[in-house]
Amino acid sequence: QQRACVDKSFLYGLEVERAGIDVMYKYYAYRWDAGYAAQMHNKVLIIDKALYTGSYNLSDNAEHNTFENMLLFKGPEFEDLVEEYETRFQELREQGPGLLGPLRSKIDNDSTIPIVFPAMALTWTEIKDLKALIAKECPAVNSAAFREDPVGHQMCTK
Length: 158
What we know:
This protein has helices at about 10-20, 60-65, 80-95, 100-110, 125-135, 145-150, and strands spanning about 25-30, 45, 50-55, 70-75, 110-115, 115-120, 155. The chain is an alpha+beta fold.
């Protein structure tokens, strides 16, 4: 029997995307680590003019391993607040335009490639393809040394 397996950290967002909703992720590293993580701890969903915000991630970890919160603001009294969040959301969504192509080129062509790079907003497919390219060009990225000391391995020499 075969199963389709996906990266658990993206599972819930992927399900939302499969339901036809446009989903973008702030992405800046092959592997997350608190030592270099540029945190945006406040998460935002705007659905039918209702604002959901808090620390909750659409992830397996948030669902099962951490204590998270989510607030809901809806109704005419919160229209201005929702609009402010929509404006900020567009700014985040457009983060790092034009960075993916040059990064992929660097990974393909340079002898030293970044494992941590400037943040950009990407789709799940773009992230999956970028991770596959990094793993192909730097097989050591999945070694014990890279996993156990991500801060010490932010670059990879081919």
